[in-house]
């Protein structure tokens, strides 16, 4: 056999081994997304950072889903209009595309539907869809961007949220060390981290945290084995279904970039990954992890941090003469 043929044969065996190892794991690597309409993505990025979508002119999507801090605000619960304390922890916007639904209780089925919610939520951006359309439509610089994205200059709430959703679809984080390991790079993670992954699997964590995102694909009861104690009043899916059996049932959070998205759980009560792992083992699996086991799982979870989106902040167009004036210090509209 010639050296060329021998090298090809060896390469084929190595490639087959890597493929077999990948195929044997219940997790797929995250891959970059294909951008089919760059103009729509660019418009969505502008609107994602656009504070004039809020009543005060101060809050944007990025306020609670900060792209420089893992797509979250790192607060127990978010701060909205007039410093209102939100009722629940903000999930990350990174890798949000492809989940079974959006929000902890799954009330939005798509990213576009999710984007529409905070705009009109009185505790968040506190505007209305009608006012948001009026404001964006009154800013002359947006006309050319809507035309490039949609073919004409028409502004409506559907186009606003579709554009934001298309931008959010691109916010993926590939090339985590764990992804490199999945693809065959045995040195991408350490033996200690690998033990954490093996413990993660053998403990049953992947019953809920599965798929490429290690979560986001199902709804589960918080406190499956032992009741989860919390002062947070959010009832999860019950708020949507009205059924008592759905109380404390939430969408399983994804674990990609989880080391960046503290604090944890719907109530933001777990300040550290170590605490989150211990609580999950206790209330979901009936397991009491040792400090060593906890450290192993945490070490594995940190290998899930991928390449963060490299976002060049958009230059937002100046307001036009017809744009409503904002006064964030004025009394709330419903104030007596």
Automatic annotation (TrEMBL):
<dbReference type="Pfam" id="PF03150">
    <property type="entry name" value="CCP_MauG"/>
</dbReference>
<protein>
    <submittedName>
        <fullName>Cytochrome b6</fullName>
    </submittedName>
</protein>
<keyword id="KW-0575">Peroxidase</keyword>
<keyword id="KW-0574">Periplasm</keyword>
<feature type="region of interest" description="Disordered">
    <location>
        <begin position="316"/>
        <end position="336"/>
    </location>
</feature>
<dbReference type="InterPro" id="IPR026259">
    <property type="entry name" value="MauG/Cytc_peroxidase"/>
</dbReference>
<dbReference type="GO" id="GO:0020037">
    <property type="term" value="F:heme binding"/>
</dbReference>
<dbReference type="Pfam" id="PF00034">
    <property type="entry name" value="Cytochrom_C"/>
</dbReference>
<keyword id="KW-0732">Signal</keyword>
<keyword id="KW-0560">Oxidoreductase</keyword>
<feature type="binding site" description="axial binding residue">
    <location>
        <position position="65"/>
    </location>
    <ligand>
        <name>heme c 1</name>
    </ligand>
</feature>
<feature type="binding site" description="covalent">
    <location>
        <position position="208"/>
    </location>
    <ligand>
        <name>heme c 2</name>
    </ligand>
</feature>
<dbReference type="GO" id="GO:0004130">
    <property type="term" value="F:cytochrome-c peroxidase activity"/>
</dbReference>
<feature type="binding site" description="covalent">
    <location>
        <position position="61"/>
    </location>
    <ligand>
        <name>heme c 1</name>
    </ligand>
</feature>
<feature type="binding site" description="axial binding residue">
    <location>
        <position position="280"/>
    </location>
    <ligand>
        <name>heme c 2</name>
    </ligand>
</feature>
<dbReference type="InterPro" id="IPR009056">
    <property type="entry name" value="Cyt_c-like_dom"/>
</dbReference>
<feature type="binding site" description="covalent">
    <location>
        <position position="64"/>
    </location>
    <ligand>
        <name>heme c 1</name>
    </ligand>
</feature>
<dbReference type="GO" id="GO:0009055">
    <property type="term" value="F:electron transfer activity"/>
</dbReference>
<feature type="signal peptide">
    <location>
        <begin position="1"/>
        <end position="23"/>
    </location>
</feature>
<feature type="binding site" description="covalent">
    <location>
        <position position="205"/>
    </location>
    <ligand>
        <name>heme c 2</name>
    </ligand>
</feature>
<dbReference type="GO" id="GO:0042597">
    <property type="term" value="C:periplasmic space"/>
</dbReference>
<keyword id="KW-0479">Metal-binding</keyword>
<keyword id="KW-0813">Transport</keyword>
<dbReference type="InterPro" id="IPR004852">
    <property type="entry name" value="Di-haem_cyt_c_peroxidsae"/>
</dbReference>
<keyword id="KW-0408">Iron</keyword>
<keyword id="KW-0249">Electron transport</keyword>
<keyword id="KW-0349">Heme</keyword>
<feature type="domain" description="Cytochrome c">
    <location>
        <begin position="191"/>
        <end position="305"/>
    </location>
</feature>
<feature type="binding site" description="axial binding residue">
    <location>
        <position position="209"/>
    </location>
    <ligand>
        <name>heme c 2</name>
    </ligand>
</feature>
<dbReference type="InterPro" id="IPR051395">
    <property type="entry name" value="Cytochrome_c_Peroxidase/MauG"/>
</dbReference>
<feature type="domain" description="Cytochrome c">
    <location>
        <begin position="39"/>
        <end position="147"/>
    </location>
</feature>
<dbReference type="InterPro" id="IPR036909">
    <property type="entry name" value="Cyt_c-like_dom_sf"/>
</dbReference>
<dbReference type="GO" id="GO:0046872">
    <property type="term" value="F:metal ion binding"/>
</dbReference>
């Amino acid at each position: 056999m010639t050296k060329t043929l021998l090298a090809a044969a060896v390469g084929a065996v190595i490639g087959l081994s890597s493929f077999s190892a990948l195929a044997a794991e219940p997790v797929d690597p995250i891959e970059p997304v294909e951008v089919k309409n760059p103009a729509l993505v660019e418009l969505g990025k502008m609107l994602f950072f656009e504070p004039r979508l809020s009543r005060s002119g101060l809050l944007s999507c990025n306020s609670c889903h900060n792209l420089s801090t893992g797509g979250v605000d790192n607060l127990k619960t978010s701060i909205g209009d007039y410093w209102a304390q939100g009722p629940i922890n903000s999930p990350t916007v990174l890798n949000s595309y492809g989940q079974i639904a959006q929000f902890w209780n799954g009330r939005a089925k798509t990213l576009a539907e999710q984007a529409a919610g905070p705009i009109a939520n009185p505790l968040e951006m506190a505007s209305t869809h009608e006012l948001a359309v009026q404001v964006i439509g009154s800013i002359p610089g947006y006309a050319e961007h809507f035309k490039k994205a949609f073919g004409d200059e028409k502004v409506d709430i559907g186009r606003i949220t579709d554009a934001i959703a298309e931008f959010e679809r691109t916010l993926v984080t590939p090339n985590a060390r764990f992804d490199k390991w999945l693809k065959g790079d045995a040195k991408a993670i350490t033996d200690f981290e690998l033990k954490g992954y093996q413990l993660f699997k053998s403990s049953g964590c992947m019953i809920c945290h599965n798929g490429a995102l290690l979560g986001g694909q199902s709804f589960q009861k918080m406190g499956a084995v032992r009741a989860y104690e919390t002062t947070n009043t959010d009832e999860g899916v019950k708020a949507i279904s009205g059924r008592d059996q759905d109380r404390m049932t939430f969408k399983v959070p994804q674990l990609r970039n989880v080391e960046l998205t503290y604090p944890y759980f719907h109530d933001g009560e777990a300040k550290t990954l170590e605490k989150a792992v211990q609580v999950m083992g206790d209330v979901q699996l009936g397991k009491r992890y040792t400090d060593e086991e906890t450290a192993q799982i945490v070490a594995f979870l940190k290998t899930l941090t991928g390449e963060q989106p490299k976002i060049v902040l958009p230059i937002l167009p100046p307001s036009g003469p017809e744009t409503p004036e904002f006064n964030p210090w004025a009394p709330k509209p419903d104030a007596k």
